[in-house]
Amino acid sequence: MQELHLTQEWDKVFPKSDQVDHKKVTFTNHFGITLAADQYTPKNYTGKLPTLLLLDHSVQLRNNQAAFMLRQWMKRAT
């Protein structure tokens, strides 16, 4: 497994929400490849949460569409 060094600083093109906690995580897929991801969770939430994994190969597309979808999902969750 390859070790990745990730910054926890906000590095997105969209503004950080005060209703969401964000952290960068890594995991290894079934091919043994280490992947990095952004994890978003509602602030002050306890208990189990459903998981949605959004994969995209384009950074520009990811930053725009993921930001829009994240805001929509978080609005529905609160």
UniProtKB/TrEMBL annotation:
This is Uncharacterized protein. It comes from Lactobacillus helveticus.
